[in-house]
């Protein structure tokens, strides 16, 4: 049997299976990277609000939220997060706020952050953060709409 007819036969045999294949898996609710369950690269999300700076969390103080593990610098920070995770969790699940404005999931980096109106936003890197800073309210508005659409 020649190669071309063999390929056509294989494609026809597989076509019913492909028609019923499940859609690609959605991105996780909280960005953790491919091989980890740790949110914010292990940084304490409460520290951004309390000290105004990122601080590495400890494996001694953790909490699970939406399938991700958050680390904290203290029991007090962990307990504050557990009491109101939505107040401290990064917006868009820790994905890059600038990319989300375009409806895309890109990693958010804990080193490139900003608190706007009491909410924590992350960006991919310093170049992207510079672009995001050019129109923060506009990008937040677009990203809020995209995030809502992606999470329905």
Topology:
Layout: H1 3-19, H2 45-50, E1 58-65, E2 68-72, H3 75-83, H4 85-88, H5 97-100, E3 109-116, E4 119-123, H6 126-133, H7 136-150
Antiparallel strand pairs: 1-2, 3-4
Would you write up a description of this structure?
It is a single chain. The protein has helices at about 5-20, 45-50, 75-85, 85-90, 95-100, 125-135, 135-150; strands at about 60-65, 70, 110-115, 120-125. The chain is an alpha+beta fold and about 150 residues long. The strands form two sheets. It has a two-stranded antiparallel sheet. Strands 3-4 form a two-stranded antiparallel ribbon. The longest helix has 17 residues, at about 5-20. The chain is globular, with a radius of gyration of 20 Å. The model is unreliable at about 15-25 (pLDDT under 50).
């Amino acid at each position: 049997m020649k190669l071309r007819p063999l390929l056509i036969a294989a494609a026809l045999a597989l076509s019913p299976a492909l028609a019923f294949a499940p859609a690609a898996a959605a991105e996780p609710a909280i960005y953790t990277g491919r091989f980890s369950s740790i949110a914010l690269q292990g940084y304490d999300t409460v520290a951004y609000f309390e000290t105004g700076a990122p601080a590495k969390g400890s494996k001694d103080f953790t909490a699970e939220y939406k399938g991700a593990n958050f680390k904290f610098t203290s029991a007090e920070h962990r307990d504050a997060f557990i009491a109101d995770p939505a107040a401290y969790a990064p917006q868009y699940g820790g994905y890059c706020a600038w990319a989300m404005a375009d409806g895309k999931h890109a990693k958010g980096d804990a080193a490139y952050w900003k608190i706007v109106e009491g909410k924590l936003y992350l960006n991919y890197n310093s170049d992207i953060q510079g672009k995001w800073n050019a129109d923060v309210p506009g990008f937040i508005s677009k990203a809020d709409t995209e995030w809502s659409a992606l999470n329905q």
